[in-house]
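User: Predict the complex.
Assistant: Input components as received:
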Amino acid sequence: MATDTTGVERAPREHAAGRTEAVPLRARTWQREGLVAAAFLAPSAIVLLVLRLYPTVEALIASAQRQPLNILAAPVFVGLDNYRTLLVESPTFWPSVAATVIFVTIVVVAQTVGALALGLLYTQHMYATRWWRALVFLPITIPMAVSTLVWQIAFRNDGVVNGFLSALGLGQYNYFATRGLAYFAFLTILSWIGLGYWMALLIAGLADVPTEVRDAAKVDGAGAIRTFFSIVLPLLKRPLAFVAVALTVTNFFTFIPEAVITQGGPRDATRFLMFEIYTEAYSNGNTNRASAEIVLLAIIILAIVAVEFKLIAPED
Amino acid sequence: MNKLLSRTPGKVILTLVGIIVAWAFFWPVVWMTGSAFRPEKEIFEYFQPISIHTLIPSNYTLDNFRAAIEVGFGRAWFNSIVVSLASAALGLAITVPAAFALSVLRFRGRGLAFAILFVTFSVPFELVAIPLASSFRDWGLTNTYTGLILPGLANGFAILLLRQFFAGVPEQLKEAARVDGAGWFRIMLQIYVPLAKPALASAGLMLFIGQWQAYLWPLLVADKPEMQVGSVALANLQAGAVGGTQFGAIFAGAILLSIVPTVIMLSMQRVFVLSIASTGVKG
């Protein structure tokens, strides 16, 4: 059963049956290696079936059902009713989608630009570059839940961030009290964690820009800014596209900051989709509606990533 | 302009900019470490106005670590280690043969099989975490190590990395072993695995870190105090679930949870660079 999904076991046998006369030896080798491969792939295939495919199917089925008030009764098939409720009646679903899209957009733009700026800075000629890069990279090694908790303490009204800001004469703020400040704080936390990682990816991409090309541009009299926009940026297109898409997907699943710090507040400003789903499933106990939300989340992400691919690589 | 900047004064200025930017990322680490080693009552003391003691303690103590152990954080830390190590070991045990089959063995549909495995295991696990958690409840896997470990066994990038490495091993080694009558399992274990040590370390690191970072899944399947992992236990500590918020203990716990991945990654820096290079950006 496990091997059927991958097509591993069946394909070589058909192949062998069709062409035994023509290339008997080769066909037999293929068949034998196919069987070995099926055995070697079986554990992964089982994991895939039980831990990925099964819950996906479960979510799809549950999203089309409703649990009667008697929890021992069998669930009732209701078709698309859960989806209709979410899309038409739910007071939290659309605001949650909007909050998620707005916040993810902010994060993707800010972090892509930030990582590129860091990558450009730390590929300049300076002393001990590796050390400065390592310090920027260091926060990714700290688990996200830990970083979030530590920053929550730093962002307290009597915390270290307000201490620094008032020392600089920039005033003090009650973070997590308004949408703007909460997004600012979340962006700070997520960027502190992730920027070094994306920077490292882009530095790897920058290393692939041939120095001869840059030198040629210099000989032709192009300035630093011109060189960047006409030569470096086009050559960085692939890694930048990867960073933007990866940032979109990961941040759509942002859960730790709002679960740990704000519980979705203030006034649902940080009630991002993962937290909305979690609340629906656990606080409201409506697994069916939560399942429908998961399906919608998957559809939204697929659509956005598809659009991003279209925008970034129209010629491919 | 580049020529000018590459001369010494430009280099000094750029280095200064580099240090300032790096400091913007590094000070929270200094502050967090300092707070773990200072007396509880000093934690909020030096912010208004700021001074050198804002980041560096004026008195050092290990009380916070003692407090963290007392509220049961030691057990949570131990759970994180068990779960992450087991996931890395078992994860490699299923990933290595899969990657071997997908790169060394020849069979119809190999490309498709790889695409299915890679894409499925690269879809963020959060998408299926909530439905899977209710199945785990039905199967009696809540508050067990098995329940915590299972979802961390597969990683798309670990398969990708090992597959690429195995594909780079010269075919002659395989052919020679075949002629000598070696079976595929032996070829994998005695030829490919010893050659792939850096890739194995890198894939193992991905699996380990993936579990060490996990928060949503352990939150869903392990709520008993003795089965909680470090990150969940620390968040509960912050929420004041265990007799009011003890900030000192939180910082101590934060250090205990950060030191493990940091030490591993710094000691495996070259390996880690390899794993970044393999994510497909460099194609």
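Chain A touches chain B through 99 residues (CB under 8 Å).
Let me know if you want any component modeled separately.
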